[in-house]
Fold this protein.
Amino acid sequence: MAEVIQPRLTVGDTSWFQRDRFGLFIHWGLYALPARHEWVKQIEQIPDEVYDRYFRHFDPDLYDPSIWAEAASGAGMRYFVITTKHHEGFCLWDSGLTDYKATNTPCGRDLIAPMVEAFRGREMKVGFYHSLIDWHHPDFVIDDVHAMRNHPDRAKLNESRNQSHYADYLHGQVRELLTKYGKVDVLFYDFSYPPHKGRKDWDSEMLLKMTRELQPGIVVNDRLDLMDVEGGWDVKTPEQFMPRDWVCVDGQPVVWETCQTFSGSWGYHRDEATWKSVEQLVQMLIGCVSRGGNLLLNVGPTGRGEFDERALDRLAGMGEWMKRHSRSIHGCTQAPKEFRCPEDCRLTYNPETKRLYVHVLTWPFVQVHLDALAGKVEYAQLLNDASEVRMSEPAGHQTELGGFASDTLTLQLPVVKPNVTVPVVELFLK
């Protein structure tokens, strides 16, 4: 019996999370208008009175979340996470605790409610990102990461700021989000950065307690600075890099998800050109699942409320692959250690169906060799078209001259690579 790695148990319900594997991240706010990075206010140290021009001109007149949901669902994504508020402090919903919100811009409406409805209509789980940081709030103490970090009157400005009052505001806004929109499946807090700001500044333990009470089963990430607290987090979230193996904490495998961008920016960036190809993105998704993790892939909508053509092209390309290969992603995880991965391949495994998936990243000449699998596979097929892949065990001259063990299973592949981004062989184990 193949032994599948079981990650550390979580307080939140991560059972669906570990099945669905692929989600959409959305970074959207006033920063879509300058269109040169979501941290533009901080990077360029833009004062509030100048940044307010984006507030006065925020009018996403082409916003139709049903189009977003269709693109995400078509790409094979099963859940989404939207920035309700990013570090700039601007809120996409009609918060009763601030005037700095979408309803007070030319947009004039709550942007979260129709988004939640549209994605739920595609049977996708709902996630909220919420920034712990707020460069607009008058009680948020200015530190070395703040947009006003180099203000000549920083010390004097901080005299009237009260971080505990800001924490009350933070908790109040989270309460609104968790009581206005029905079931919320994920809360992605972002982020703590001790020694500048950490658990005391957010009153993190009380914030987490309220989060779990208002939304039982909600999946919470690891950025509240509560890594050492029992139940203080559910999911590890490595950002903008690919772990080499299943993510572990204190030597124990944990539920994990890497968040990644199409290019170098989370918010819409008009001039950023280092966009990943569909092939790179598909391989990234495969790589995550082959290590027992999830991929949360980001789109930054434009100031008019659209996914631009570059994002739609990548989502469509991934959807074309997922249409025929999602069986190797959804419901799958890292293959048991007894299944050794062939050269230039990645393995995933579905423990319910007992099927092993061989993702062939570099198309070989005719054969792929699987060590220690001879006699253990009942049937093999290419997943894209369900065409049979013939199997054989090594002949005598192969074991003598080719370095093949007697228990090697060889897959006989076509000479020409199938016309798909990454071909996958589905193995039905005995």
The first helix runs from residue 15 to 20. The mean pLDDT is 97. The domain at 335-429 is CATH 2.60.40.1180 (Immunoglobulin-like).
